[in-house]
Amino acid sequence: MDIFTEEERKILQPFFTNLDKPVFVLVNLPEVVKGALFARYSRSPKSLRRVLLEEFILNPEMNFTQVAAMEEKVLFQKFIATKKAEEFYERVLIGFGDDSVAELAGVHLACEDVSQLIAAKALEDNRIGISPLEKSTRYVFFDQKENGKYKYYRDPDIMQSDFDNLYEETLNFLFDTYSEMIQPMTEFIQTKYPKTDDVSERAYQSATRAKVCDILRQLLPAATLTNVGLFGNGRAFEYLLNKMYASPLAEIRNLAFMIQEELDKVIPSFVKRAKTEHGKAMQEYIKQTEEAMWKLSKIEGKPKRVWIELVDYDVDAEEKVIASILYPYSSLSLNQIRERVRAMSLQEKKRILEEYASRRKVRQHKIGRAFENAYYTFDILAPLGAFKDLQRHRILTQQRQLITTDYGFDMPKEIVEVGLEKKYKKAMEEAKKAFNKVREKMPLQAQYIVPLGFKVRWYVKLNLRELSHLTELRSSPQGHEYYRKIAQYMALKVREIHPLLAEHATKFVDLKDYHLERLEAEKRIDEKIKKLKKDQVM
User: Fold this and answer.
1) Cα separation of 63 and 56, whole Å?
2) Per-residue pLDDT averaged across 492-517, rounded?
3) Which domain CATH number covers 124?
4) Is the pLDDT of residue 76 over 50?
């Protein structure tokens, strides 16, 4: 937790709901400043408050004092307007029960020092109404200590049990191993992929650093502390709070209380029901359903170890999509149009798809909604790091099983090449031993121990439009090796079973392999920087 001087506190006080808690809300800031602040936050080892202070307020290039001064003139009027708005929303929400009104107020919320794969994923699990941004394991090293201790979550249930010493010893060993490998892995990567004349020093250092972070993050346990920035509306935050209050994990429940406390300062009317009988009933419904399913779902058997497989799909997907393409431009019913499509020749179907989708020039040109009529379900067994990245896709259904060490861990080839295989394997095996001991009594809390390199099973159900977005984005050259493989597999399976649709839906999927994944992206950033400087001179 950051400690600020009296002078720093005086500067920061107007912009945060508190300066001494890990959960807080941004206030009195223009939206453009909030957006830029959260963007910088995701790639910085600093706290959000420290980023605002050092890189915005005290940075003369940002002209922050001018922006803030403009905002200060209307603070009193804003306060009065806010009070009146709160009174209005209170009447509507209580008097008429119109929940959609709660979507009209948005809040930027920061949650710092939360566990990467437990609390952060709980925060990011809402699919509608909340936009998350998390501190990246790709741009920031996690070797720092605070008050002589590595930054990982110390679960109170574990720390008050007989496993407290085992837990800390195991996680300290993982962080020690991670920290000790940074230098030799950096030297190895820079030797293996030397800088060329067409690459700037900035781009090269960023690309090689990202590569090292990608490799070594496998050692980071689920308990590793991270920062998450959220922008969301009141209705979404209320639902998030209800889910978090119902969690069996202390970290998530405690985080819900802190979030509630901060949101009560800025949008109290929108989240107050999470504390009422209405909210408690919702929480009991969630909690009791979870408990009942754990008791009921005792399905025995030996689990398959297939890394990814297509479980099911719409056999008549082409008919559904083409009929949906034509539907808005017809007066016939959907069933009538489908009958016509069944009778079409292959050339007729191709022509319709060409007219509808062939004008896409880049992946950012989203394919039309008709492609939402075809569905696919994939079962995935991959390193937690890949789940960490893909879980953030929201327009689909994802559910994971408990985090365990049962499926083994991934061994990055670079670890073997640099000669650190034994050291890496030792750390992972120690984590597995500790996990197995703790899970005998605390299966949920034991998840905190598991490093990102261990595999987890989850399924993804998505329509073809979302599959198009996911596979074209996640197969791009700058993507992490593991989720690129998952994206490529999904695209190839659709091309195999639905070639007419895949020709357009997976048009920009990249099937090639890359070494320094971030290099081309960093070179493009260099070009943008040059152009920006040139424009400023002009």
Assistant:
1) 8
2) 93
3) 3.30.1360
4) no
